[in-house]
Amino acid sequence: MLQDLLSNLGPWSWLILGIVLLGAELAAPGVFLIWIGAAAIVVGALSLLLWNVAFWSWQLQFLVFAILAIAFAVAGRRFYSRNATSDEPNLNRRGKSLIGRTATLHEPISEGRGRIRLDDTWWPVMGPDLPAGTRVKVVSAEGRDLRVEVA
What we know:
The chain is an alpha+beta fold. The chain is built from five helices and five strands; from the N terminus they run H-H-H-H-H-E-E-E-E-E. The protein is rod-shaped and about 85 Å long.
């Protein structure tokens, strides 16, 4: 029964599956189902052309679908990762986004360690020994620690 169902799947079944997957991508975006949906649509188009050909069995259709889905996903990932530029490259790197800012030392830097306040956050700093109240400039970020120098 299952084999009859699979062997009688027409090209429209692939096209409908592709449209459903593209619709699912719209409902839950993640840029993944679009590639599987595109593979189903391509297999549906090939099925329209090759439906009466003896070698175009359901097993070959599923194999072509699997290969195309993987190929489209890999190609899409490479395409989008190559074009991934941002107007805010340091958005999730808070320490890096502070480079160049100036602040006043809240605690003196003694033995290379101290603290500053930037916006509403206290940051541990590293640098030359300086008294509290000195204006410093953030020159780099190393993890949570900021490296500073006299502004």
